[in-house]
Amino acid sequence: MTDTFSARKYMRDLKLPFCPGCGLFSLSDTFLRAVHELGHEDLHKFCFASGIGCSSWIPSPYYVADSVHTLHGRSIPVATSIKLLRPELSVVVFGGDGDIVGIGLGHFIHAARRNTDILVIMGNNMVYGMTGGQVAPTTPFNTRTSTTPYGSFEYPLDAAKLAVASGAAYSARWTTAHLAELKEAIKKALGLDGFRFIEVVTHCPTAYGRRAGFKDIGEMLKYFKENAVPVQKTGKMSEEELERRIIVGEFVQRRRPTLVETVYSKLKEAKEGAE
To answer: 8 lies in a domain?
Structure first.
């Protein structure tokens, strides 16, 4: 693309709801930059689904596009239905860590197992940000939150690895300190078939950072950058060395029959049998 990128080309004239300094501004902007660089002049070929939480506000009602803002944790089954009925659309889910791998964990696993033809982008701010900063499935061990003032006592869920184990066609993780890499991952994922998952570890100064001991956004981004480890290097590192590190990169890319392909194949088979 040679024309200048402007996020506003894809957005309604509404004020975004995020706190000052929220990393979701960067996530939304990076997604739209990827769309722009892929040559999309608008979002008419897309349909978005989202649940409840800060990240779920990214597409709805702010993108000039068809979108469904559904119940907490239920965006993936809604997106599955949309894709089965309108397979020509690029269906994208935006959600947070609580929405996608908290209350929505069962849907996440089974969508990956079925190789559902959707892209799920999860903004992982490591807490339930919208409801007060409570401990979440992705909160790092021994981190202070509003509900764990002495430090969390549970180990976090590794969503990117879980996607791989569940059968995803593509799984990647980046942070808001790796926006160039994130943009390329989004562009790649939009060109693939099957269940694609991108986890974005995002800074949340309001609900997470101040309780976790970060003095400002810059310190959070510096932490992300300095503690990121490429997935290719983890094979030679011990669990102790990887503790509290952020593993980034592409975890899997593979081709297997998608849900749309298998469902429509069975429908064709049934129709031919009936005739």
So the answer is: no
